[in-house]
Specification:
Number of strands: 0
Shape: elongated
Strand content: under 5%
Distance between the termini: 45 Å
Oligomer: single chain
Order of helices and strands: HHHHHHH
Number of helices: 7
Radius of gyration: 20 Å
Structural class: mainly alpha
């Protein structure tokens, strides 16, 4: 694809991009750490989701288990939507649109579009899923996703608005989608796994097991 098909118009947050990448050029001792974190933060978030799902399985907490399953599926949907938006907007990476601003990491090719950030889309989806599973884990996940977003701008790979769009996209899909899939997932769990001995008074109005034990869901999501 030639560059004529790519949007190279700079954006309203160019100044923020220049400020952050300027900070990166003046902190060379931090570049290696940021390059590592930009991927490792996503790995950490994924491991937290897996650990939370395993804990929900051990406790027979059906709501948390359903939320963990939706986090995996919803994260894939979020990334897919993000990739589709890239093809719609075809926004050039800032390191291509502003070649006079030197990033601390090599710039991707012209068809690797900028809006929204893939890394942050996935990180934000996992963080939103953690919020559904457990509020305390969700707070940790949100901090990690925001840090991942900062690394993308620091490394010169994305505008701040690419990061913000990714955060909003994934949050809407994961949190909004949960309202739609919660009951069907709980019904599917009940059909596949049975009650596993959960107390009868812990079922909701549809006969779906809501939580495994009284008092264990104080920090769980809706």
């Amino acid at each position: 694809m030639n560059n004529a098909a790519m949007n190279t118009v700079t954006s309203f947050d160019d100044g923020w991009y220049r400020d952050v990448t300027g900070f990166a050029r003046h902190t060379p001792w931090l570049v290696g750490t940021m390059s590592l974190l930009t991927v490792q933060l996503i790995v950490i978030l994924a491991l937290l989701v897996l650990a939370a799902g395993w804990r929900a399985w051990r406790r027979d907490d059906r709501v948390q288990l359903a939320a963990a399953a939706w986090t995996v599926v919803g994260s894939g949907i979020s990334v897919g939507c993000g990739l589709a938006l890239k093809q719609v907007f075809r926004e050039a990476r800032p390191c291509l649109a502003m070649p006079h601003v030197m990033p601390v990491e090599a710039c991707p090719g012209p068809t690797d579009y900028s809006f929204p950030s893939d890394h942050v889309t996935l990180a934000a989806a996992l963080a939103a899923g953690l919020w559904l599973i457990d509020r305390r884990l969700g707070a940790i996940g949100a901090a990690l996703a925001l840090l991942d977003g900062f690394t993308r701008v620091y490394l010169g790979q994305h505008y701040p608005h690419d990061v913000l769009a990714a955060l909003l996209l994934s949050s809407l899909i994961i949190l909004g989608g949960w309202r739609v899939v919660r009951t069907p997932l709980l019904r599917l769990e009940l059909r596949l796994l049975g009650s596993r001995g959960a107390p009868a008074d812990e079922e909701d109005g549809d006969g779906l097991v809501a939580h495994s034990a009284r008092g264990e869901n104080d920090q769980t999501g809706p």
